[in-house]
Amino acid sequence: MAASASCISLVVLVALATAASGQLSPTFYDTSCPRALATIKSGVMAAVSSDPRMGASLLRLHFHDCFVQGCDASVLLSGMEQNAIPNAGSLRGFGVIDSIKTQIEAICNQTVSCADILTVAARDSVIALGGPSWTVPLGRRDSIDANEAEANSELPGFNSSRSELEAAFLRKGGLNTVDMVAPSGAHTIGQAQCSTFRARIYGGGTNISAAYAASLRANCPRQWAPRGLLHSDQVLFNNDTTDNTVRNFASNPAAFSSAFTTAMIKMGNIAPKTGTQGQIRLSCSRVHRASNDFHMKRIMQRNYPIPMHALVKVISEV
Predict the structure, then answer these.
(1) Which among 34, 26, 41 is positioned nearest to 137, based on CA atoms?
(2) CA gap 12, 16 in Å, rounded
(3) Which long-range contacts (C-beta less than 8 Å, at least 24 apart) are formed by 55-58?
(4) Rounded distance between C-alpha atoms, residue 276 and residue 221, angstroms
(5) What does the record give as cofactor (predicted)?
(6) Was 65 annotated as part of a binding site?
(7) Pick from 230, 196, 229, 234: nearest CA to 215
(8) CA dist., res. 74 & res. 112, Å (int)
(9) Does the annotation mark 64 as catalytic?
(10) Residue 156 among known ligand-binding residues
């Protein structure tokens, strides 16, 4: 009997360990919140239909989240990372994510993380703008903090050199130079603020065509065929090691789409919090203060159907 109980306990503990360690899976919410993905897609489609620029904004918001302590929705917390130099006054889309979160909470309370909502929203934004689709692994959890200092040090700036861009991507582990070039193509679907490229159009340099600079000056008064809008775009095609990759993408849309989706999946997998790490926020803009015991209870109930009192009884009999 003792041996039998020990075997049962071992099975239970293995199951709990699997739930605690956590693995991302496209089917993560199939049972716990089957309407989650449709709700996210509907919210994104409505937002992009109302404001086409929102697609690029949500994609950028996802990138700025993942590059700072992983894809954990830390950028959505009020203050902190939002005040970092690369983010302040330029990030958009918070209201869209908040609205989607509210809708999902109404059908699946404290089940779908803000980190997953943002990751899926980035994918759906690209689809809404006519771009490629990809499968999003799910199961991320939300951070309980944010890091303004890391945002200032880890996010590439619009004036970054190619070597600085490459270093930023390689530091993330699993990303390479192709993953660096492909997402830069997303700059073609958004808008940049004049302050991020005035130096290029008024500097008299040779790293931008005169005609293109003149057309941009018409919309950006002086305050501050190369046609890279941002300096960080143009350095990828400037007689350097990434030139061939840029040429290949320009002449082969299928190759670009494949590389872009691969890069987005890899970026979405940067240091996710899973299992018992972090939490599932009730509101994306602030940390939920419930106890860790409450979250652990929900995880075990969701991933292992034996009632809690039965689990306690089996483990206590070892």
Answers:
(1) 26
(2) 6
(3) 55/125, 55/126, 55/128, 55/129, 55/189, 55/190, 56/125, 56/129, 56/186, 56/187, 56/189, 56/190, 56/191, 57/91, 57/92, 57/93, 57/190, 58/93, 58/96, 58/97, 58/118, 58/121, 58/122, 58/125
(4) 52
(5) Ca(2+); heme b
(6) yes
(7) 229
(8) 15
(9) yes
(10) yes
Q: What global pTM score does this model have?
A: 0.71
Identify the CATH number of the domain defined by range 1-155+274-318.
1.10.520.10
138: DSSP letter? B
Establish whether 187 is an annotated binding residue: yes
The backbone torsions φ and ψ at residue 141, rounded to the nearest 5 degrees and listed phi first, read: -115, 165
- Which token pair is 125? 């934004």
* Count of beta carbons in the 10 Å neighbourhood of residue 138: 24
Q: Is 124 annotated as a binding residue?
A: no
- Rounded CA-CA distance 121/225 in Å is 34
How do the pLDDT tens digits run along the chain, 318 residues long?
Answer: 444 444 443 333 333 333 334 589 999 999 999 999 999 999 999 999 999 999 999 999 999 999 999 999 999 999 999 999 999 988 999 999 999 999 999 999 999 999 999 999 999 999 999 889 999 999 999 999 999 999 999 988 766 677 788 888 888 878 888 887 777 665 444 444 454 555 555 665 555 666 656 666 666 655 434 443 333 344 344 445 666 767 776 777 888 888 889 999 999 999 999 999 999 999 999 998 864 444 444 444 444 444 444 434 333 333
- Flag whether 246 is marked binding: no
